[in-house]
Amino acid sequence: MLRKLFKFHGGVKPQTNKERSTTAPIAAVPLPDRLVIPLHQAVGGHPRPLVQPGDRVFKGQRIGGADGNLSSAVHASTSGLVRDVAPAVMPHTSGLTTLSVIIEPDGEDRWGELDKVNYRSTPPDELRDFLRDAGVVGLGGAVFPSYLKLKPGKEGKLKTLVINGAECEPFITCDDMLMRERAGDMLKGILAMRHMLQAEEVLIGIEDNKPQAVAAVQAAIAASGQSGIEAVAIPTRYPAGGAKQLIRVLTGIEVPHGRRSTDFGVQCFNVGTAFSIYEALELGRPLISRLVTVAGNVDAPRNYDVLIGTPMDHLVRLAGPRADTDRYIMGGPMMGVRLPAFDVPVVKATNCILVGSEAMFPAPAPEMPCIRCGECAKACPADLAPFELYWFSRSKNFGKAQEYHLFDCIECGCCSFVCPSHIPLVDYYRFSKSEIWAREREKEAADAARDRFEFKNHRQEREKLEKAEKLAAKAAATREKVAADGATAPAAGSDAAPAAKPAPDAAKRALIEAAMEKARQQKAQAAPRNTEQLSPDVQAEIADIEARREIVAKPAASPLPPQDA
Amino acid sequence: MFTALFVMTGIALVLGAGLGFAAIKFKVEGDPLVDKIDAILPQTQCGQCGFPGCRPYATAIAGGEAEINQCPPGGEEGIRKLADLLGREFKPLSEEHGVEKPKSVAIIDENTCIGCTLCIQACPVDAIVGAAKQMHTIVAAECTGCELCLAPCPVDCITMEPIAETVDTWKWRYPVFQIAPAALGTARQEA
Ligand code: SF4
Ligand code: SF4
Ligand code: SF4
Ligand code: SF4
């Protein structure tokens, strides 16, 4: 029976360039002399380092612990010596550094103790914690911690589990090769996810330009004897591998703005993620390696099973980069980002290293004004109006850009691809998005500062008030005492009533006089005692100080004005 | 007749008390324009504008007693926003109030700190923790970079450090300038 498929809006058909890298099987990579493992690899937290320079680590040992709710652990990819825990340049356009663990492999590649877990008999919460500590994240490129997505939602079960094997981006073939060579194990991972999510059906979407992968997955399903799982060949059209687009094609569900696919009973995972979930649960192996396509300006494009932390130039050397290579792009030509250096490490997000040169990717033609032809809107799979977004981003009118759903843009690059004016549209959207995030952070900080400032003022007011009250209470007590003392003596006098009124004033003055007298005495006592047998220099200095003291003391010792102000 | 009088007085009293309570309970805090202006100000609370904090400055602007270009931490962008909000002309930052600086946080040299608590008293947002005669530290996340703690420190152990960019705070540049990463940029020139 043929399944009814749906179409998503827009999309383009770039040259796929996938043939050459699928001719040879997945290859292993010799150990490099140095692994650089960034602690911050997934969306969210910055795991704290669990090792110190000089420590010996086993393969698979946890070196970074998940912090907070949105984080996932990081592990040593091979056994060896921790050389350093220090900032290192990360594979990111910015060229910024991030805290990384630098390991010198000992060549033995020895695993530590491995904890397996039987997912059928373990409560879901424990399974999720297990996957968090195994560092499993989405390997399709978004690197979102998988355990967070493995919650069935409000109803306790899911309708459809969508597995993304579309791999629509040109040049990239790591998912294709994974399905061809490891379909059986990948399927075990899918079954574990299905169990955790209580999903009714599983649909594995694979673009129809990968017939071998489709056949391999179908064979694996048949061999497993499971029902309710189907490998579906979908039309090749970029970006069919976008989560929303794939869900649309397979189920017909259009996830509207501001909603999530789980609201409609659908959740989507990448095939690579499924494989690493199998490795984590059934072999007890945390995520320490992944498949990476090396393609582009190399003699032999190919897929490699690469340890996380392997320097990219070490890997690319195996594929024979051509002499005119001048750049590495992480990801494909549509969505990839240019890297700041050649020796940055392979991370969990690295699905492809696209080796480039000036000849292969010539600089784009100069940007021309937008002619509002609407081609971009026709191509946009998120059904946005890219030219409006461009206009608002260009004029830094971020509020408007958000109104036009800037954050629904998946940065697929279809709009830039079709634009006859060669406008780097996606660059504008990325710029806008990061500006908006920065503003939001600033606003949060300002709000917090305002609260703290108001709180401090409030506290100071209160302290002042409390102090004043205390003083007043004390003064009242003394006044009463003095008044009582004074009252006993002249009480015999004839006009006791009118005399009572000036009493507080007199009493106050008496108090102040007493305090002044005490201070004067203290000052006199404070005169230095060791003034005999000193050198003339010191004597002179003392005399000088004494003279200054006199001056300072004078106003204080002057008689008190009759009425205090 | 007295009953009627009592009843009326009773009603008046109850209603009066109700109104009085409502006036306290549902009191409208401040002036909405001041709130809007205050929302634009950066809340550094540094006093460079000549007022003891952002809110007093906001009140002064709303009352027409202050110019909109007196807040250095808010910078040009802040002035533009204020100009938009108030329908006034944009003016460059007034020099007598200071210059725009990169955002920084204060760092206490913990070996030199004598624990005098003077900086704690100066900090407008309670970003410094420590007790008398104990070494003090600044909670970087709370510090607004107002520099008010620098002057009171008797041993000059507080310095301002510009906040370093991280991958989380990094921003894509405006596309008119081509993004050419440094290392590859040179490689490209050699090629
Ligand atoms: S495709 Fe390019 S020129 Fe045409 S409307 Fe979109 S941005 Fe403008
Ligand atoms: S990059 Fe964004 S705006 Fe452009 S086509 Fe893709 S989703 Fe639409
Ligand atoms: S100068 Fe700006 S940040 Fe500083 S107190 Fe005044 S308004 Fe606030
Ligand atoms: S720590 Fe210093 S610079 Fe930071 S907010 Fe407090 S007083 Fe200002």
Automatic annotation (TrEMBL), chain A:
Biased composition, class Low complexity, residue ranges: 484-505
Stretches with biased composition (Basic and acidic residues): 506-520
Region of interest: Disordered: 483-542
EC number: 7.-.-.-
Domain of life (superkingdom): Bacteria
Sequence positions that bind [4Fe-4S] cluster 2: C380, C409, C412, C415
Domain 4Fe-4S ferredoxin-type: 360-390, 400-429
InterPro entries: 4Fe4S_Fe-S-bd, 4Fe4S_Fe_S_CS, Ion_transpt_RnfC/RsxC, Nuo51_FMN-bd, Nuo51_FMN-bd_sf, RnfC_N, Soluble_ligand-bd
GO biological processes: electron transport chain
Family under the similarity heading: Belongs to the 4Fe4S bacterial-type ferredoxin family. RnfC subfamily.
Subunit structure: The complex is composed of six subunits: RnfA, RnfB, RnfC, RnfD, RnfE and RnfG.
Protein name (database record): Ion-translocating oxidoreductase complex subunit C
Record lineage: Bacteria, Pseudomonadati, Pseudomonadota, Betaproteobacteria, Rhodocyclales
Gene expressing this chain: rsxC
Automatic annotation (TrEMBL), chain B:
Localization per Swiss-Prot or TrEMBL: Cell inner membrane
Residues binding [4Fe-4S] cluster 3: C123, C143, C146, C149
Keyword terms, alphabetized: 4Fe-4S, Cell inner membrane, Cell membrane, Electron transport, Iron, Iron-sulfur, Membrane, Metal-binding, Repeat, Translocase, Transport
Textual note on the cofactor: Binds 3 [4Fe-4S] clusters.
Keyword Transport on entry: yes
GO biological process, one term: electron transport chain
Region (Hydrophobic): 1-23
Record-listed [4Fe-4S] cluster 1 binding positions: C46, C49, C54, C71
Domain 4Fe-4S ferredoxin-type residues, every copy: 104-133, 134-163
Start and end residues of each 4Fe-4S domain: 29-88
Residues reported in the UniProt entry to bind [4Fe-4S] cluster 2: C113, C116, C119, C153
The protein's Enzyme Commission number: 7.-.-.-
Protein family membership: Belongs to the 4Fe4S bacterial-type ferredoxin family. RnfB subfamily.
Job of this protein: Part of a membrane-bound complex that couples electron transfer with translocation of ions across the membrane.
PANTHER family the record matches: ION-TRANSLOCATING OXIDOREDUCTASE COMPLEX SUBUNIT B, OXIDOREDUCTASE
Protein name as catalogued: Ion-translocating oxidoreductase complex subunit B
Organism: Zoogloea oleivorans
Lineage of origin: Bacteria, Pseudomonadati, Pseudomonadota, Betaproteobacteria, Rhodocyclales
